[in-house]
Amino acid sequence: MEKIFVVDFGGQYNQLIARRVRDLGVYCEIIPFFKAKEILEKDKPNGLIFTGGPNSVYSDTSPHIYKEIFDLNIPVLGICYGCQLMAYTLGGIVTEASSSTAREYGKTPTEYNTDSLLFDNNTGISWMSHGDFISQVPNGFKITAKTNNCPVAAMENKEKNFYGVQFHPEVNHTEYGKDMLKNFLFKVCKLKGEWKMEDFIEKTVAEIKEQVKDHTVVLGLSGGVDSSVAAAILSKAIGNKLTCVFVDQGLMRKNEGDYVERTFTKLFDMNFVRVNCQQEFYKKLKGITEPEAKRKVIGEEFYRVFWNKIKENYSTGFLAQGTIYPDRIESGKGDAAVIKTHHNQVKHPADIKFIDVIEPLKDLFKDEVRKVGLMLGLPKELVYRQPFPGPGLGVRIIGEITEQKVKILQEADYILRDEMKKCGYAENLSQFFAVLPGVKTVGVMGDSRTYDELIAIRAVTTDDFMTADWAKIPYDILGKVSNRIINEVSNVNRVVYDITSKPPGTVEWE
Ligand code: XMP
Fold first, then answer.
1. How big is the CA angle at 254 (ends 253 and 257), to the nearest 5 degrees?
2. Which residues line ligand 1 (CB under 6 A)?
3. What was the pLDDT predicted at 157?
4. Which residues, in sequence order, are CB contacts of 97 under 8 Å at separation 6+?
5. pLDDT tens for residues 148-163?
6. Please, where are the H alpha helices in 122-196?
7. According to the model, what pLDDT value does residue 336 have?
8. Of the residues 188, 221, 239, the one at which a domain ends
9. 51-55, 292-296, 408-412, 439-443: the lowest-pLDDT one
10. Could you tell me if 409 and 283 lie in one domain?
11. What is the pLDDT of residue 104?
């Protein structure tokens, strides 16, 4: 199979590079720079892309690359730091920014040499983000682009298929960036670009069948996107040899448990086991108010209930998990050399011995997972579901969790979602929900004084959830939601809107 390795030097756009390559129909993996030698000894890709990174090639602590990588006869595209590193490793000169005026940030007019296979246009805008610059290219290289400040905005050694760009072709701000990546893949690496999601499904289904044979597979289904798509592809491969265990801990949104059950029992061939343990959870959570303590109890109780169920009947075959690619990408930052632990990769008790673990989505990015989900017939509503935290409404009820508070919050949240959907504003939001702060306030309804619960509405826009803006929802929509919540939900007499961004706030309230 055609394949590109993106060698990660710690830059911020690394996953974006891989996404772009895949969008162009070429399978792509990200590998950390310090593992490149070991990996390339076993596996030869059709091309390498060196990413950017925050360092200077002259620093002792900067990521470097072994020189023999350039003897493997594999085309290389170096981007930003990756370009400087290629120049430095092959004998060119990189000049430190402090001694020059060549620093460039942002959109920069650039002249390209169209003799290069990389460029189709003479001029265009490139996205720059660099201090150091290349002042002399290595022997055998020629300069193929420049800007007012940067003498080497691109360089290449055509005979050896080594290309470098000082700017970032992977970001949208680089006007012809996509064409440049395309040219690298199809003109330099001479690839065909035939990697498609349909092929992925077919291949994965065949692999699962081959691996599982007559055994059984158990999967923990949360109703989230990843585990749902994993369930769908496993069902296609092995039908009722698959058992999905769905733990309803009483902290889901209104009707969600029934919705998940209906979806998977009606649309897919599998054994669906719903563990109704709402009351057990409420009992365990009685009297607990501290946020971390609540999370801990919910997590531990989930672990206990889930694995007890599996131990009873389903522990003799394979375990499947909804791990996706970003859950397991090893960072090129060096200090983060361990694979991220993530909620998708659930540890299982040592006394359960599965034949093996199956992770059918482990090579896919989130939007690829969504595509696969739609192709397999999952409802759009489920595939494009907003993120929902593992501890569920438990982190949206401040203070002690009770069954009655869960009901109030579910109703208010349902109205919020219903209104947002009806007016179409939901599409502008990354995440939105209701919170029950556990604060009672005085109000007046009819002629009577009320002393009832407060509901807060939280809505954010964000690209990555690391930072987020509070959403500027029009007042008339907020007004309608507020009216409906107060009129339709018993025990609520006031609604407020949270206008805190992240930071300093977090998206969830606990
Ligand atoms: P915060 O509150 O940290 O949330 O700004 C960022 C994103 O993560 C989600 N979130 C969680 N997801 N388990 C999860 O699977 C959790 O414990 C958890 N806590 C927060 C949150 O909904 C938001 O999308």
1. 75
2. 343, 387, 389-391, 431, 465, 502, 506-508
3. 98
4. 56, 103, 130, 131, 132, 133
5. 989 999 999 999 999 9
6. 177-183
7. 36
8. 188
9. 51-55
10. no
11. 85
Q: Probe ligand 1: pick from 227, 393, 469, 508, max atoms within 8 Å of CB? A: 508
Alpha helices in 376-455 (DSSP H): 380-383, 403-423
Domain boundary (383, 414, 431) is at 383
Lowest mean pLDDT among 185-194, 330-339, 340-349, 407-416: 330-339
Q: Is residue 307 included in any domain, yes or no?
A: yes
CB atoms within 10 A of CB 214: 7
For residue 52, the CA-to-ligand 1 centroid distance in Å is: 29
- Which of 249, 465, 498, when mutated, tests ligand 1's pocket best, judged by the most ligand atoms within 8 Å of its CB? 465
Range 235-263 average pLDDT:
97
Same domain, yes or no: 169 and 272: no
Q: Are residues 48 and 92 in the same domain?
A: yes
CA atoms within 13 Å, Cβ hemisphere of 149:
21
The residue contributing the CA closest to ligand 1 atom 24 is: 387
Residue 215 shares a structural domain with residue 93: no
Q: Which domain holds residue 470?
A: 399-497
Q: Specify if 423 maps to a domain.
A: yes
Q: Is 392 inside any structural domain? A: no
Q: Confidence class of residue 332 from pLDDT cuts 50, 70 and 90?
A: low
Give the model's pLDDT for residue 339.
34
Domain containing 95 — which CATH number?
3.40.50.880
Task: Give the mean model confidence (pLDDT) for residues 363-372.
Answer: 93
- 394 within domain boundaries: no
358 shares its domain with 221: yes
pLDDT (tens digit per residue) in 97-123: 765 566 888 999 999 999 999 999 999
- Cα→Cα distances 377→206, 236, 372, Å: 18, 10, 9
Residue 64 CA: distances (Å) to CA of 34, 139, 294, 334, 507: 8, 20, 45, 11, 38
- Work out which ligand 1 atom sits closest to the CA atom of 506: 5
Q: In a 3-state reduction of DSSP, which class is residue 424?
A: coil
Catalytic residues: 80, 168, 170
Tokens 């007019």 belong to which residue? 109
Domain total of the chain: 3
Distance from the alpha carbon of residue 509 to the mean position of ligand 1, in angstroms: 10
Residues 124 and 206 in one domain: no
* CATH number, position 421: 3.30.300.10
Question: Cα of 361 to ligand 1 centre, how many Å?
Answer: 21
